[in-house]
Amino acid sequence: MLGQKINLAKIFFYLLILFLPIQLGYHFWPKSAYVYGLRIDYLSPTLYLTDIIILFILFFYFPKLLRLIKKNVKKTIFIIGLLVILFTSAFFAENQFAAIYGIFKFLEFLFLGIFIANGKKNNTTFSYLLAIPIIYESLITLAQFLNQSSLNGIFYFLGERKFTGLTPGIANASLNGELILRPYGTFSHPNVLAGFLVLSMTILIVQFVKQKKATKYFILGSLILGTIALFLTLSRVAIILWIVLLPFIILTKNNMNKKTIYVFFGIFIFFMFCVLNTPLLLRFTQISLIDEAFVQRQLFLKEAFDLFLKHPILGVGLNNFIVSIPSVMKPSELNSLQPVHNIFVLNLVETGIIGSLFFLYFLFLTIKKNYKKKIFILSIFSIFFLGFFDHYFLTLQQGQIMLTVFLGLWWGKNE
């Protein structure tokens, strides 16, 4: 009976990978989700389709999860200590409901990570299912870019938001003086879409040489489409990361044959051609410190520094960065209500010095466990690099799942 439940948990895990990009969910809007009378998505308790899938995973995995908790006493004490810190911080938080909700989300992804780390996965099935969302997201991205608006209709049920290039707050890019709508796919921002593509394609390249011929062709098609979609997101950080990662992965994979190397270098050359011989190059050559993206990030960092000085030990509480902004800035000085665009700074502000030490110690243990693996170094570098310029790994459902899956894979027993 237990074996059957574990198999069911694995099936739902594969469904989670298949539907990872889906943003479909039901938002609740309590008073705690408002700041200055504005509804803040980051503060809205939301039941996502992926939450339901995760709950099924944990339900079928629960008996083994209990045994793992009893068996790993030191790790359990570590987790309990962190929870004590988080609940103490939540008690003093300005928005206690948001902080406690953040703790329960943390537990959800913690248990999911434990399942991934301790469960055996079929690499071929995993790679095949990961390639599918890359393909459908790439096709949606291409269609949105050509249409310069959302696709609407049935795509609403995939979590696509309704938008055009004129929608307030939408992500546009200025190329040659023309505003170009950056496609979102079914994600909440083009940068999150780009991060998903880079991390997912990294996994697929690593697994590529282990696949059967038919699966290789399928994966190769997803990599080509994913690279084109990444180009269309106009996400500077993710594009730079892919330019660095792709040749490095190829050169460090000793078991790649010459034909495979030629294929991947062909993809790289095509990608570089698109970057250097299209208006996309202007995204990198016409960078100014007065650009809105830079100005906002500087403002967020200033807010974060001021908040940290006010709450250095325990922080402001999970999900309380935005809520706490009014305590350090006047309404007239604000032009956006978002978390600071850096996962390390955000963690420091919301959990304080003590919580950050737990976070850094966990990362240290992760690196210590895998530092001899070249691909791990590339993967953890990718997460750090993306997380240094954005916050979605800690604040958005899709980003949290990505981070959990990656860390779970690296804590797993299988390669």
Brief overview:
This protein has helices at 2-18, 49-71, 73-92, 96-118, 123-147, 190-208, 213-233, 236-252, 258-276, 282-285, 292-310, 321-324, 343-370, 374-389, 392-395, 397-411, and strands at 25-27, 34-35, 38-39, 46-48, 172-175, 178-181. It has 415 residues and is mainly alpha-helical. Strands 1-4 form a two-stranded antiparallel ribbon. Strands 2-3 form a two-stranded antiparallel ribbon. A two-stranded antiparallel ribbon has the order 5-6.
What distinguishing features does this structure have?
two-stranded antiparallel sheet, mainly alpha, 2 domains, 415 residues
Q: Which regions have little confidence, pLDDT < 50, spanning 5+ residues?
A: 1-6
Strand arrangement within the widest β-sheet reads: 1-4
- Number of beta strands: 6
What proportion of the residues form beta strands (DSSP E)?
under 5%
Helix/strand-derived class?
A: mainly alpha
Order of helices and strands: HEEEEHHHHEEHHHHHHHHHHH
Major sheet description: 2 strands, antiparallel
Overall residue-averaged pLDDT value: 85
Rounded to an integer, what's the Rg over CA atoms?
21 Å
Notes on the protein architecture:
The longest helix is centred in the last third of the chain and has 28 residues, at 343-370. The strands form 3 sheets. Strands 1-4 form a two-stranded antiparallel sheet. Helix 4 runs parallel beside helix 16 (397-411). The protein is globular, with a radius of gyration of 21 Å. The protein has 2 domains: 2-119 and 289-411, no CATH class; 123-285, no CATH class. It is 66% helix and 4% strand. Strand 2 and strand 3 (38-39) form a beta hairpin. It is mainly α and 415 residues long.
